[in-house]
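Sequence dictates fold. Below is an illustrative record:

_____
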Amino acid sequence: MIRHPRLVAFAMLLILLLAWEWAVQAFKFSPLVLPPPSVIGAALLRGLQTGYLWPHIAQTLLELGLGLALGVALGFAGGVLLGESAALRRVLMPYVVTSQVIPKLALVPLFIVWFGFGTVPTVVITALICFFPLLENTLTGIARVDAARLELFRMLGATRWQTLWRLKVPAGLPAILAGLRVAVVLALVGAVVGEFIGASKGLGALIIAAQGSMDTPLMFAVLLVITVIGLLMYEATLLLERQLLKPYSQTSD
């Protein structure tokens, strides 16, 4: 059993970076094709120090936050409604699935026609990408309630609303939070993909601009920033999950 997994993970990352640096020098790869980590780090540091990256980071975080909030709200509300009504589920679920099987990148030009360039189409595409995992997990979580506990609530005369918020949602919280973790990751993907086509500012738009100017180190630097944002948001979701599930774990103990 690994006693210090984070230390091992850091050591593996360090070995990978050193091997990458050595391979670029040894095989004489062009920085245009594969820049070494030292060059990427210098490009990242330069972009942060000059302030060039910060407006793009702020724009992506804005779109990410708005899209995630909208997608999570719609996903949770939709999951509760569909979970509580079998008739509504049979009517609406095919349309929900249809909205997910359509390639999201193909929808960006259409959203640009509807909403124009800028923040709105990226927020919409982000919400559309991330709402389905939360809807599906919420629907699954509130449906998998222990039958004995459900019967107990019925015997005690609990209303449907009380049963939902005091039994079904707490019981389905692990599944709902698992959907939130997936939604957070997909939201970042949605924001960056939306910026590829419909934005002039943001990390996705910056990748396209760097590609046009053949600035490969900057492309890698932006990808590194996106990775760090994604990891931080995922860790924040794990922290939120631990806090929300702590009362239930203490009760079970």
